[in-house]
């Protein structure tokens, strides 16, 4: 083994000499190393960004949007305190809260903006939502009867500030449920602003549950829906169906898979595509190792023949060229991993800097976040390194085996 290491080092030093005819072989070898380097670095950065999006989906978006909802399609749900208490006692349910949801308009002076109005009970809402973490001014858990909390984009479009009186236009339906009446106008004080950096900023309007009940003509025990938070968001649908069977009211069962599930599927699809595409790039770079080693074996047939006449075993020759190919891969993997890790740890800052430099943010108004997240996972680095080395090993086997097939009598006889 030591002899193979020594021979591999000598062959590599000889191939890299500028005055030698086989300088082109050295160029191909370096090109394969650079290809592996770029492939590994790109894969680590891409997977870190995908992991970051998934983390933000779970800990940011899914901590605010409803994980599970039971919505009454016609008449409201009665006696909500008892039913919330019942839901909270169900296995795998971490919190429950009532709500009244209705679409309406927000008006300030001459500006109008469509909003999704949610009447919430402040004492219960923090059990199912982390919206307080993204709220400035009065928090949702501190809502008063005449307060309203709006998303940042709504406030920006209305050109309002905290303390202004904002009018909400809430539609009313006739008692027969067949026609719309004139909308109810409710003037409230803008007490807080939600800043999540996503679509919630352009649609959410929170008011006190009692205010929503009085506007819609409900009594204090009636709501349009019940909301749950669960201990595992990826099993929310199964939990929603099981817990929903305990509710006596006729309700629609909804989980975040219906509203945000396509986003999660897109993230997983992109992860798969990145794996396939980048590993193909690494495979192409690894096959450059095949080219460089094949040419090197051809150039060094004389050296191989002399080694064989001196008693070198086929296993020694095989190990020599395998190590030479793996050295190329090792350098590429090492440098690619270092570059990928450094970029992955700083990609968020680099993206922000680039956005300020060019004056445009490509994520603004498109995704549920307006920054580029990153989460470096050691298992991704491990998989990348292992698969790259396996491809490199496969790439070195054929040229190394060809080296063992050199016939000293034919080579030295010529």
Automatic annotation (TrEMBL):
Record-annotated ABC3 transporter permease C-terminal domain positions: 276-408
GO annotation, biological process: lipoprotein localization to outer membrane; lipoprotein transport
Membrane-spanning residues: 27-50, 273-295, 316-345, 381-401
Membrane topology: Multi-pass membrane protein
Domain of life: Bacteria
Record localization: Cell membrane
Record-annotated MacB-like periplasmic core domain positions: 33-233
This protein's record includes keyword Transmembrane: yes
Coiled-coil annotated spans: none
GO cellular component assignments: plasma membrane protein complex
Keyword annotations of the record: Cell membrane, Lipoprotein, Membrane, Transmembrane, Transmembrane helix, Transport
NCBIfam families per record: lolCE
Alphabetized PANTHER family for the sequence: LIPOPROTEIN-RELEASING SYSTEM TRANSMEMBRANE PROTEIN LOLE
Similarity field: Belongs to the ABC-4 integral membrane protein family. LolC/E subfamily.
Protein name, entry field: Lipoprotein transporter subunit LolE
Organism: Pseudoalteromonas espejiana
